[in-house]
């Protein structure tokens, strides 16, 4: 009995010595980190806990609200897993209004979206446009439709842009906003050609390798030095049809591709589907009186398409940091909780969810589901609490798998202007596990990458 007591005492003392040693190593590493010249005008927030004991390993400005960048996605993804379910799928219905007579549809083809952010995405075999269109064509042919005396009408059509997103982001692929009908992640490719002389105008070749694509641009892009990279920005038009593109691309490029965001994904889908159906099914495009009420009462459903499951969508949401998915998740959470399909209702539902899980409302000053807004502010403590909450849930393996791996650590990163952040889980060689949030705001980017310097601190926990 005495030997057993001595053993327990020895183990307890050893654990305390190890914990003290870890804290000291972390403290020394962060002191070195904070002395870096790039942080002269920055603010750093760090919160690290021992997963097993809940003991704080390190705390620096952990209750301060800081801009999190894309690390904010963990709040949205965890809530989506809990509120929507690991196996949740979006649905898209294909049907028609009117009647079919002698293989002619006298009415419209209706495609009803439910906010699926992966519809038409190339990330999954079943979601690529060719696969979806092939399926749709087969359904129409089985219904006996060879001609459409009407139109193709994707519903709904409106896009909701989070109010705190900045105009400079909105026209670019990472600023693609979500709607009830998304297509190809609401992204297109713009193909450009540059000459050899710096400062001369750049020409537009095509959109999506399609010279007939119905999109117009005010093009102010000029040639810059070779190796200068993509320094162009696309601006979304609001009160006119033409998109605006400014900036520079490198010299002597024959097919330089930049990626933009469409403002009307439903029209994008309509164009692509009509192009696919050309020569297969005749579409007259007759103007038929078809009010929203008639679409509901006179709708004949032919087919229901299901998206990949939420765990698969979340994998790319976190791995590739796709902002569109975060806003789509928020809108769906709002619809299921409040019967209101909007970003604002989604944010309210997200805040309420986390307040019920013990995170103070004032600790989450957020405006979107993705972290793109520079106005977002969250505390390192709230981030760690959310990450810890996930560990005890049955869907945690899916969430953990979806987290990217940097520096041999499973963690989500966040980057916007002057912001670098990480939150995740560290497994040490000793068997101790840690949950952490590390956020830096307003550092000097001219001093080079800060990620490696953060990794040096986190390495002390391995």
Summarize the structure.
The protein is α+β, with helices and mostly antiparallel strands and 462 residues long.
Describe it.
The structure is a single chain. This protein is α+β, with helices and mostly antiparallel strands and 462 residues long. Helix content is 32%, strand content 26%. The chain is built from twelve helices and 24 strands. The strands form seven sheets. Strands 2-1-24-23-22-21 form a six-stranded antiparallel beta sheet, with helices on both faces. A hairpin with a 2-residue loop joins strand 22 and strand 23. Helix 3 crosses helix 5. The longest helix has 33 residues. The protein is globular, with a radius of gyration of 26 Å. About 1% of the residues have low confidence.
Question: Characteristics of this structure?
Answer:
462 residues; alpha+beta; 32% helix; six-stranded antiparallel beta sheet
How many helices does DSSP assign? 12
Classify the secondary structure makeup into a structural class. alpha+beta
Mean pLDDT score, rounded? 93
DSSP E strands, number: 24
User: Could you describe the largest sheet, including whether it forms a barrel?
Assistant: 6 strands, antiparallel
Low-confidence blocks of residues: 6-11
Name the overall outline: globular
The order of strands across the largest sheet is 2-1-24-23-22-21
- Cα gyration radius (Å): 26 Å
Strand content: 25-35%
* Assembly form of the protein: single chain
Q: Level of helix content?
A: 25-40%
Measured between the Cα atoms of the first and last residue, the distance is 35 Å
């Amino acid at each position: 009995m005495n030997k057993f007591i001595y053993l327990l005492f020895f183990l307890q003392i050893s654990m305390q010595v190890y914990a003290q040693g870890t804290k000291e190593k972390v403290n020394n590493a962060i002191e070195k980190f904070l002395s870096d010249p790039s942080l002269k005008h920055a603010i750093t927030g760090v919160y690290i806990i021992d997963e097993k004991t809940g003991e704080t390993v390190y705390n620096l400005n952990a209750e301060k609200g800081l801009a999190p960048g894309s690390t904010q996605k963990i709040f949205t993804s965890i809530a989506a897993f809990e509120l929507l379910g690991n196996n949740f799928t979006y649905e898209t219905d294909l049907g028609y209004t009117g009647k079919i007579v002698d293989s002619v549809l006298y009415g419209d083809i209706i495609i009803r979206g439910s906010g699926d952010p992966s519809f038409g995405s190339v990330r999954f075999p079943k979601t690529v446009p060719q696969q979806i269109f092939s399926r749709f064509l087969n359904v129409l042919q089985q219904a006996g439709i060879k001609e459409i005396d009407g139109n193709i009408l994707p519903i709904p059509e409106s896009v909701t842009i989070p109010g705190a997103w900045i105009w400079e982001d909105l026209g670019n692929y990472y600023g693609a906003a979500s709607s009830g009908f998304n297509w190809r992640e609401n992204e297109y490719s713009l193909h450009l050609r540059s000459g050899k002389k710096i400062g001369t105008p750049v020409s537009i070749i095509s959109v999506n390798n399609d010279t007939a694509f119905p999109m117009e641009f005010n093009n102010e892009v000029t040639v810059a030095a070779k190796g200068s990279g993509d320094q162009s920005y696309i601006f979304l038009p609001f009160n006119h049809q033409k998109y605006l593109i400014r900036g520079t691309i490198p010299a002597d490029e024959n097919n330089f591709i930049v990626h933009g965001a469409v403002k009307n994904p439903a029209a994008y889908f309509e164009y692509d589907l009509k192009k696919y159906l050309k020569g297969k099914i005749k579409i007259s495009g007759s103007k038929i009186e078809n009010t929203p009420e008639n679409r509901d009462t006179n709708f004949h459903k032919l087919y229901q398409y299901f998206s990949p499951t939420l765990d698969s969508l979340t994998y790319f949401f976190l791995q590739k940091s796709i902002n569109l998915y975060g806003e789509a998740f928020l809108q769906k959470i709002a619809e299921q909780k409040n019967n209101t399909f909007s970003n604002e209702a989604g944010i309210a539902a997200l805040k309420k969810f986390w307040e019920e899980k013990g995170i103070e409302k004032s600790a989450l000053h957020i405006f979107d589901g993705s972290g793109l807004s520079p106005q977002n502010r969250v505390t390192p403590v709230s981030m760690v609490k959310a990450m810890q909450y996930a560990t005890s849930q049955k869907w945690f393996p899916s969430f953990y798998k979806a987290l990217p791996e940097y520096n041999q650590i499973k963690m989500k990163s966040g980057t916007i202007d002057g912001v670098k952040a990480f939150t995740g889980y560290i497994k040490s060689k000793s068997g101790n596990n840690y949950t952490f949030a590390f956020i830096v705001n307003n550092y000097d980017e001219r001093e080079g990458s800060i990620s490696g310097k953060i990794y040096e601190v986190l390495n002390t926990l391995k």
